[in-house]
Amino acid sequence: MHIEDAPAPLRRLPSWLVSQAALLAQRTVSDRLGAVGGHRREFSLLTALDESGPDSQAALSRRCGIDRSDMVALVNDLALGGLLERRPDETDRRRNVVSLTAAGRERLQALREVIAAAQDELLAPLSASERERLVALLTTVLEHHPPAASA
Predict the structure, then answer these.
(1) Is 129 a member of any domain?
(2) Packing angle between helix 57-64 and helix 40-52, nearest 10 degrees?
(3) What 3-state DSSP class applies to 66?
């Protein structure tokens, strides 16, 4: 749907506009990542590991907002691809610690370039200062509301 086709009252609702922009953003990022065999969850996990270093699968699941069972499958796939390694935690053998490999860092850099291109495509009509303002405004809204409780 083009925005011009939507009823005027919808086009004046920030919640509707944010929802439509989110759908466009998800499609744009997913299409770009898919073109290189990537996925948002892969990018999220590699980014979290790069930012904070090795961590448990459970902690990464919480930080990335990825369901625990999906995290297990994702870690398995990325470990098989040599992008990360999983080993038992030396202080608690019941936990696994996941860490980024050199190949994982290379993959993350490639995905960052893809994500940057997707951001440029999505936000093409905005200037650099408008993009910064948009990020600031969305951050303010999201920080105001507590995260949804996990089940």
Answers:
(1) no
(2) 120
(3) coil
The Cα-based distances of 133 to 10, 28, 122, 127, 137 in angstroms read 23, 21, 15, 10, 6
pTM (predicted TM-score): 0.87
Which conformational region is residue 98 in: left (phi greater than 0), alpha (psi within -120 to 50 degrees), or beta? beta
Give the rounded percent of residues in the chain with a pLDDT score beyond 70. Answer: 97
Res 26: pLDDT: 97
Q: What is the CATH number of the domain that holds 79?
A: 1.10.10.10
Considering its fold, how many domains does the chain have in total? Answer: 1
Range of 63's domain? 41-123
> Which of 128, 122, 140, 129 is CA-nearest to residue 20?
122
17 found inside a domain = no
Predicted confidence (pLDDT) per residue in 41-54, tens digit: 999 999 999 999 99
Q: Which residues are CB-contacts of 54 (< 8 A; sequence separation ≥ 6)?
A: 97, 98, 99, 100
Residue 151 is predicted with a pLDDT of: 44
Characterise 75 by phi-psi region: left (phi > 0), alpha (psi -120 to 50), beta (else). Answer: alpha
What is the arithmetic mean of pLDDT over 17-23? Answer: 95
